[in-house]
Amino acid sequence: MDNRPYQICTNCIMDTSDPNITFDDRGWCDYCRNYYKNIVPNWHPNEKGEELLRPVIDKIKKDGKGCDHDCLIGLSGGIDSSYVAFLAKEKYGLRPLLFHVDAGWNSQEAVNNIERLVDGLGFDLYTEVIDWPEMKDLQVAFFKAQVPHVDTPQDHAFFAGLYNFAAKNGFRYILTGANYSTECVREPLAWHYHASDLRQLKDIHRRFGQRPLKTFPLSDIFTYRLYYRYVKGVRVVKPLNYVPYIKEDAMQELTDRFVWQEYAYKHYESRFTRFYEGYWLPTKFGYDKHRAHFSSLILTGQMTREEAIERIAQPAYDEETIMQDFEYVAKKLDLTVSELQELMGGENRTYRDYKNRMSLISLGTDILRILGIQKAIIR
Ligand SMILES: [Zn+2]
Predict the structure, then answer these.
(1) Which of 13, 37, 206, 210 is most buried, judged by most C-beta within 10 A?
(2) pTM
(3) How far is the CA of 28 from the centre of ligand 1 (A)?
(4) Distance from the alpha carbon of residue 190 to the mean position of ligand 1, in angstroms
(5) Strand partners, 102
(6) Binned average pLDDT, 10 residues per bin, the chain of 379 residues
(7) 15: CA distance to ligand 1 center in Å?
(8) Angle at the Cα of 83 from the Cα atoms of 279 and 105, rounded to 5 degrees
(9) Ligand 1 center–CA 2 separation, angstroms
């Protein structure tokens, strides 16, 4: 695969930095083909979508009668989840509990945005603060493992915290900001392995961690997709797939209403993510997640291919900010700058170098694809 000649899709900007990408005669990649074949016909960000979602919203309200809250919304501080919270109030009249996981990396903009949104909407907010020594230990373990997916500890804390809380407190509905509009091209697993593979997380922590994870939220992909769903009855609803969701317009709306502050890139509400996606991953591994994000925006008509090519050619970081963030991340993890640099120079590994449940997860994904539930490509 490494000797493969460089090729870039002629319709989006995904390229051979995704080792498993395939192209057809026109030079279109498999993400593009999948988008038109499987996503477009089943995606209704319009009146039909509203019709499909209405009974679900009615049911959430009905089931939640007499409870303090009728659903749970995980709020990261980013645009997608913030907009879901906004819709829950303005469009659907729901009574959610907003749930935020503080994994220690919130940018100041994110903190401000969450405060303004929560105040503006008048919803209750519950914040789960992750024990920092545990978070730090797991984070450093992933750096030492030399895998590309060093954002797994943060991602895992976000979703496991949310799902565990829902199951424990009897919530029957979780509303998430997942959506086709900005995520129809998923990052390939080579760039971003499943953060929900608990076997992998535990193996990496066992090898490189130093303190036990006593309070860190843990949840296996099968726990929440099967046990929580079918035994505990926790359902996940993705409202953004049923309305016209144009990122720029949504940001403008929140900015106007709540003095919400924009981030330069998707997921930059976390300082760790900014460092990781903007610098660590592209520099050490040659993977640029913006390539997938921009490709999604091209397919959904929110960015031209020319604009995306121009933007991807520019580094997401200027030299000075890299140095500052490098120091910030090192210091926060109790590493010296040279120790973090040494980790940066280490030999790259993949999720396959550690225990994982990839074959079982793939089987699950295949079944969901056959059933028509999973539409985006995950590979
Ligand atoms: Zn493509």
Answers:
(1) 13
(2) 0.93
(3) 5
(4) 17
(5) 129
(6) 85 96 97 95 96 97 96 94 96 97 93 94 97 98 98 95 95 96 94 93 98 96 81 92 96 92 78 92 95 97 97 86 93 98 97 93 80 75
(7) 8
(8) 35
(9) 20
* Closest of 228, 341, 249, 245 to residue 300, by C-alpha: 245
Question: Which phi and psi angles does 125 have, rounded to 5°?
Answer: -125, 130
> CA 365, 368, 369, 373 torsion: positive or negative?
negative
Q: The dihedral of CA 209, 212, 218, 223: what is its sign?
A: positive
Q: How far is CA 10 from the centre of its chain?
A: 26
Question: Residue 2: its pLDDT value, please?
Answer: 58
Going by C-beta distance under 8 Å and a sequence separation of 6 or more, which residues neighbour residue 241? Answer: 43, 44, 45, 49, 178, 179, 180, 181
Beta carbons within 8 Å of 302's beta carbon, 6+ residues apart = 181, 182, 246, 247, 248
Integer Cα distance of 240 and 184 in angstroms: 12
Report pLDDT digits (tens) over 144-171.
999 999 999 999 999 999 999 999 999 9
Distance 32 CA to ligand 1 centre (A): 4
For residue 6, count CB atoms less than 10 angstroms from its CB and return exposed for 0-12, middle for 13-18, buried for 19 or more: exposed
The 3-state DSSP class for residue 223 equals helix
Q: Using alpha carbons, list the distances in angstroms from residue 340 to 24, 76, 289, 319.
A: 41, 27, 22, 17
Q: What is the pLDDT of residues 339-370, one digit of tens each?
A: 999 999 999 999 999 999 988 888 877 787 77
Q: Residue 153, exposed/middle/buried by CB under 10 A (0-12, 13-18, 19+)? A: buried
Report how far ligand 1's centroid is from the alpha carbon of 14 (Å): 6
Q: 313 alpha carbon to ligand 1 midpoint, in Å?
A: 17
Bridge partners (DSSP) of residue 216 are: none
Q: How many Å lie between the centroid of ligand 1 and the Cα of residue 318?
A: 28
Q: Determine the distance separating the centroid of ligand 1 and the alpha carbon of 287, expressed in angstroms.
A: 16
Distance 153 CA to ligand 1 centre (A): 30
User: How many Å lie between the centroid of ligand 1 and the Cα of residue 195?
Assistant: 25
Residue 21 alpha carbon to ligand 1 centre in Å: 9
